[in-house]
Design brief:
Blueprint: H1 3-16, E1 29-31, H2 37-45, E2 50-52, H3 55-58, H4 67-75, H5 79-82, E3 83-86, H6 88-93, E4 104-107, H7 110-116, H8 121-134
Parallel strand pairs: 1-2
Antiparallel strand pairs: 3-4
Length: about 140
């Protein structure tokens, strides 16, 4: 929400300086942490043209996500405290090629805690692979 007014102001300044046409409409969509009508209303009040919901929709009955993943999402409170932006989840899954400065935001779990506590990478990967077989969301990646 703090970035939204800055983005809108930046686009306005580009129009004022003639770097982009005054008549050009550049839609601004707010995303990230919007989970209900209050968040959507706040984004619209700050000047967004619309909102993008992602993680929130995973917990719906229509979603084909695993039930344990849905349960984890619903039971995770305060995303700012219980999520982390890191590359460790990509690394243990063998997903590479992302630039160093890009990491996904996921719910903190035993995989991340092991990483933070210096557990050897091979051990973390071994535990992760076992968790995949068991649908163990205390260790599996839960991007949110």
């Amino acid at each position: 929400m703090t970035l939204l007014p800055e983005a809108i102001d930046h686009i306005s300044s580009l129009k004022l300086t003639g770097k982009i046409s005054q008549s050009r409409i550049i839609p601004i969509l707010a995303a990230g942490g919007i989970v209900d009508s209050r968040g959507a209303a706040a984004a619209l009040a700050l000047g967004a043209h619309g909102v993008v919901l992602g993680t929130r929709l995973i917990a719906t009955p229509e979603s084909e996500a695993h039930g344990k993943f849905k349960e984890l999402l619903v039971n995770t409170s305060d995303g700012g405290q219980h999520t982390v932006r890191t590359r460790v989840y990509d690394e243990v899954r063998g997903v590479g090629g992302w630039p160093e400065n890009l990491g996904g935001r996921a719910i903190v779990n035993k995989t991340f805690e092991d990483h933070e506590n210096g557990v050897p990478r091979e051990t973390i990967v071994e535990k992760y692979n076992k968790a995949v077989q068991e649908n163990d969301f205390e260790r599996l990646t839960a991007f949110a």
